Amino acid sequence: MIGCLAIELRLRYVCGLAVYGSYTLCQQHSSRNAPSSTPNPNRFNSSNYTCLPGQPCWPSTEDWNAFNQSISGRLRLTIPWAAPCYSDPASEECQKVAMNYGNGVSRTGQYGSVEFLDWERCGHSHCALNSFNTSDPVSGTCSLGRLSAYHVEAKTGNDISKTLEFVRKHDIRVSIKNTGHDYFGRSTAPNSLAIWTHNMKDTTFHKSFQPQGCSARYENIGEIGAGIQAQEAWEAFEPHSMLVTVGAVASVGIAGGYGQGGGHGPLGPKYGLMVDQAVEFDVITADGRQHTINECSDPDLFWAMRGGGGGSYAVLTSYKFQLHPAVPINVYSFQAHFPPPKDITQSEIHREILTGLAANQTLFANHGIAGYNFVLPNHVVFLQVMPSSDTSAIKTITSQWRDLLVSLPGIIITEDEYHSFEKFSQWHEFTERPEISRNGPVGLGFNGAGRFIPRDLFNSSQSVDKLVDAVLSAMQFSYARHGGGGAQLYATGPDNLPDNGKTSVNPIWRNSLWEVVMGQFWTTATPPDVRSPIQKIVSETIEPFKALTPGGGCYMNEGDWTEENWQQTFFGEHYDRLLSVKKRYDPTGLFNCWKCVCGTLQIGLGIGVRVDAAFGGSPGGPHLTGEAPRAFHDPSPHTTEHRRFLQFKMRAASATLMALPLLAVGAHLKHGHEHVHADRHRRAVATEVVVVTKTIYTTLTVDQPETSSSSSLSSTILSTSQFHSITVKLPEKGAPDIVSPTASLSTVPSKAPAKTPNNPYPALASQANNAIIVNSCDYDVYVSSIGDESCGPGNVCKLVPANSTYAEPIRSCYKSGISLKVAKTKALTKPMQFEYTVWDDKTTVSYDISYLDCMVENSNGKDFSACVGHEHGIQAGSGEECPVFHCLADVECGQHAYTVPEFGYLPGAPVGACSIDKGVAFELCAENRT
């Protein structure tokens, strides 16, 4: 059961980032009535919010259409932002995406992208470009990853109220996305109906404002809709000569996780966090009711939403906050380069720079000076920011710091300047320079971790030495393991502004001068074996700071998503009270996000669930016993995962559902192999909606009672401006007639697969304990037998003459099955594949035929002319009582072989199983044998 309950789930597939043994869970296969592993006195009276297509709770088409009408037609079909580049790389749409791929504002302009790629993807399921070279050709399939299949483009409070009513009624999970700036992926959740608040763009300036139900009045109050971003905010209020306490990134939605989780920036030391400015919110609670809350009306909820995190207590629609009279933004900017040391802990340059910065930090904080400090192995960037009418004060206060920097031997100074900007927008334009903005890129993957550094560590030379040692140790640890080594030292917090209990932000922040963030970026071009351990490395990198600050914490929006002690680290002493508010206003756990305030969930896999010990999970997350953590376990007939799935499928009741709406995304149903598909054509490869050149396929397998049956299917054609035609297979129940901004939807009759005669070819004679290929063609072929390193060597390019037989003993692989690749040439170009996998019991073998590497999809459909032996038919079998698969000559073998990757999880999938002592046999040109 998902919600705010600590429960045990039977998880069968996970996907996402294999980091520190943790995974982003994108699909769960669970018993809907799974019991709690231990009694929990704090548990919620929670609903599941796990309804899936095909279950009785799932909305009918009429339900969906009525819901869409109730929100003025604002239900949208999600199309990933980079989809045009998978359909037509030369198109204008693709060029626009590629040109703006690293632009934060552009990335927020649609639901189908987020700022960091790790939270768009789900294992190998994603739709991304190479961030460092967006013109690189894409490969594979464009798929939704963690994005919801449907989202509501909310424009009014009514849209949100109706959406919450709908998901409560049908037990569907809800997610909330504004701009998608999040280190934890809390704004994306597969198997959810998403509320997208980005286009709630109202702004109002109140010269005088009285909160509802309060006697006090405030001067200079800004009011913004939930979707307003930082740049839009300062542009709206700058004409009124007002400052907004935004951060350094223009594209951040300041009323979302920023304005509800804390919100730090260049004005923080002088005016406080964004939550310190809040005077009133308009929100919609889990029951669908609209409220105006402040210190006088619903003070507990108002307190919780002033620092307790977004997406947890209610959906915010309007944020009213204190503005500040504009003053010049005065800046000291310093940059320098130097040779990178072999060992950063022994670098005198780094030690002197960091010691000097730490020694001056208390002085800077006392004068309301913010700091953006980036220290890299061979480069430093320092920005000291002082909002003040006294434009000369910053020179006096930073003079000692500057004297140290310019006197350092062995460095090349590239900037040593003082600036004064009359307007905040001018300051922002300055920070957009590449040498500064490159420290906060978007459109890449990012793994990070942070820690607050309290004021008392800056009070003596001894404590400063310990702090500098920690920074250098962390940098060296990072540098030695993945080539990063950079440290971000933010002095942007509210040290001078105690809140007197008015906000719920972690109290530790009020007494901290630095927020240290360590992290590493990666792209789609980063090899999986390099990418997978990055988060573990980053998590370990922050350990020197944890040792220095026992019982400390970090900013909940810039922490380690694998943090185990997250309640204390992110929320501090406020957690218990926040939990009490959560129970009061969201008793069923409708709002549920990763490591937000939610029941007693302490560890989980991306969507707030606990891992059953049967999966072999550790506190960091699950991985299969004996295997290193991997980003993805491919459940093709070649792999252990697929073998286990088949055993489960044959031994327990299960139902396979084909559905577009709100899929539990994650078990990657690609019929692919780690050792093949180097030249893969574009095709559907995942459980969720997958956008490809021609077809969207969606598949989901879940545990069902024995009485359940599969949904009957219809076929729907979706025509869009980006794709010529996209086929979507939907259940007859639960397919809303929605129109996305670029799509129209119409229904056409379903087509049954063509029937083939029973046993059209002479029976195959298999050999006990052997896998054989009978070459009945009138030409020679080559066979390569490929498994993994655990199988022992196989044959490579073995010549099999016409009308002869290839045989090998059936081999067992730990991580995969065996692929018998067959082609006319030694190069094995576009091979036909015959595949078998030995089960865990060592007595059973499964087998199948695959056309996926030899067939070609074009405008006329599937072309099998390159598939060796297909021109005269192909078959596979094992013993008289075992399943036989046969493919007629020059006919698409839609029910007896893999021509669609997902087919392995459909009813009647073309995978047979028999005892090993019967052997496995495959035949080419089967009609030639009489």
UniProtKB/TrEMBL annotation:
Pfam families: BBE (PF08031), Bys1 (PF04681), FAD_binding_4 (PF01565). The keyword Oxidoreductase applies. InterPro entries: BBE, CetA-like, FAD-bd_PCMH, FAD-bd_PCMH-like_sf, FAD-bd_PCMH_sub2, FAD-linked_Oxidoreductases_BP, Oxid_FAD_bind_N. Keywords: Oxidoreductase. Residues 143-326 form the FAD-binding PCMH-type domain. The keyword Lipid metabolism does not apply. It comes from the Eukaryota. PROSITE patterns: FAD_PCMH (PS51387). One of its GO terms (molecular function) is oxidoreductase activity. SUPFAM superfamilies: FAD-binding/transporter-associated domain-like. Belongs to the oxygen-dependent FAD-linked oxidoreductase family. This is FAD-binding-like protein. It comes from Stemphylium lycopersici (Tomato gray leaf spot disease fungus).
